[in-house]
Amino acid sequence: MIKIRPLLKSARTYATRRPERPPLKIKDPLMGPGSSQHSLDGGKFTFIHRKPPTAPSPHSYITAPVSPLLRPPSQPSAVSSPSPLPPLQRPELPKHNVLSEAQIDEIRRLRAEDPQKNTASQLARQFGCSSKFVSFCAPLPRELKKAALAEREAAHVQSRERWGEKKRTVVAIRQKRRSMW
Amino acid sequence: MSRPRRAVLNVVKSLKHPAQPQLDRPRLFPPPEARTETKTAKAPVEQPSSSRTASALAPDGVFSPTVWASLQLPSPPSLTAFAHRVGLANVLTTPEAVQQIFTHPSFVPYFARYYPEEKTLASNAALSNIGNALLGLFAAEHLHATYPHLPTRVLKAAVSAFVGPTTCANVARSIGAPALLRWRRSHATLKQPAVMLDDALASVSRSLVAVLYRERSISAARAFVNSMFLSRELDLRNLIKFRDPKMALRETVEKFGREPPKSRLLKETGRLSNSPIFVVGIYSGLDKLGEGFGSSLKMAEYRAAEDALHRLYLTRQPPHLLQVPSSTFLASGLDIFGLPEEAEYVPGAIGETEVLYGSAGKSGVRAVSYRSQVPSEVQSEEHDKDGRLLI
């Protein structure tokens, strides 16, 4: 008697390839562009130099200083176009307009008049410069500055008291990391 | 408790080998002549050993073994062995010379209190003083000649690290001084500071330097200091700390008359992961001043600024070109102002002073180095006969 097996539509008869991660294509650092070979003594020896992958050491001799401050500044060579510099980490800040002496005197007068109303940021907005510049040109007298700092510190202490356990831990961890920079 | 056990042992031994004589009689301590008060009056002067044991009695007549032990001076063979061990057998020719090096001034009155009839011991106070001054001189000039751009506070910290009291004490330990040292601990009083073991040990290594200077020459003392102290390993990067390295770098670059530093991102990976790595370089125009890595952009920038300043401060004179000012002193004789017959002294490069903070903008005339001003095409790089670059 012939047994007829019904065909199971869901079973495949060929093996499938499971989706695999492709093999890592890491370039051998010893064969990279930082490696150079030179033959010495008429081909008897081969001198192989491989640039170390780690950051350069700050130690150097005076005869060949590694700090560019001790060498003349490198000029942009017009003959061969150099490779472009890496991108800036933070964008260029817009240049503020240069204030005249009269305007700076006016800033000082206003600040001395009423430091509570004419704050550094308010004057900066008014004259079109940065608040740091206003603080530099027209610093508060020592007593007023101490009082303002104490007021700010009191507000900070008050907000810190409202922190929970988790917030305190996170801040402490961040401070520890910062100390190990 | 030991005595009964020893008696039993002796009996057992005699039973095992009855024919052998009993050699190990139990030896009593303290010596018999020390155990009675009357011995002090009868002790004759020509027997120093017994008089020493006899006078190690406290005023109330009670013998103290610890006091007796602390008063024993080191034996001459051990002092001679030390001289040979340090390689100074030809300099420290007598045990008395070595004895002086190991006698701290705190020990002298203590010894005299118990042995008033003995000669006053010579202490190492004066030697230690001279040696300390010499160590400071050699270390300061060596470091200043080696690292001309090092900031002053870092130079001072490095001198303390190389020849400070802790280092001197460690060097003394390494040559076997604690066994031979004679000193007396004391707490700090209104008149005098405290005397601890490290202070006493430091006086030993300083005294050695002074003895070499006195017996031989300043060159010999310098060679000794170079081999024992200045050859020690120290990473100066740990001594260079900044409150704000970016500000320090900005002011330093301004002092050198260069373009203000700008940070640029060289490499990054895993920015949105829990372990990002950023490599940031700080550039002045086209020149990369420093490079740093970190797990955040700010951290990498901070390290890059530190690296830029390290590269400047840790530029050193090659060892074969190093010359110190004290080498111009004559090797022997009292006249130190004559010129020696050796090669002419070539002073090293004068480094740029570091930026000063909080000086209200009066940090002095902007001293820009000559080499950083003149472009490379105009400046001719001249070398003298020994291959040194002429400024």
TrEMBL record, chain A:
Residues 1-98 are annotated as: Disordered. GO terms for molecular function: structural constituent of ribosome. Residues 17-28 have a biased composition (Basic and acidic residues). GO terms for cellular component: mitochondrial large ribosomal subunit. InterPro entries: Ribosomal_mL58 (IPR024388). It comes from the Eukaryota. This is Required for respiratory growth protein 9, mitochondrial. It comes from Sistotremastrum suecicum HHB10207 ss-3.
Automatic annotation (TrEMBL), chain B:
Belongs to the ribonuclease III family. Mitochondrion-specific ribosomal protein mL44 subfamily. The keyword Lipid metabolism does not apply. The lineage of its organism: Eukaryota, Fungi, Dikarya, Basidiomycota, Agaricomycotina. Residues 79-217 form the RNase III domain. It comes from Sistotremastrum suecicum HHB10207 ss-3. It is found in: Mitochondrion. Residues 1-58 are annotated as: Disordered. GO terms for cellular component: mitochondrion. This is Large ribosomal subunit protein mL44. One of its GO terms (biological process) is RNA processing.
